[in-house]
Design a protein that fits this description.
Elements: E1 14-15, E2 27-29, E3 36-41, E4 50-53, H1 54-66
């Protein structure tokens, strides 16, 4: 069985454009990996990352942009 491990030790993470100036609840993503988009909690940079297929992440982002979700305040 082939390993599905992706080495993110040198990845360049980018915070969500919706991050507040206070750095609250936000995610970070890696944009330059072929075919996948790693996502992590910016408050836990050494914690786990979830790896999404690039097409699935793109669909998710488009859906969020097209249909604003209600946010708890």
């Amino acid at each position: 069985m082939a390993s599905s491990h992706i080495d993110l030790s040198t990845a360049v993470w980018r915070k969500s454009s919706y991050t507040s100036g206070e750095g609250g609840n936000c995610v970070e993503v890696v944009d330059d990996l072929p075919g996948v988009v790693p996502v992590r909690d910016s408050k836990d940079p050494h914690g786990p990352a979830i790896i999404f297929p690039a097409a699935a992440w793109s669909s998710f982002v488009s859906a969020v942009k097209d249909a604003p979700l209600p946010f708890a305040g």
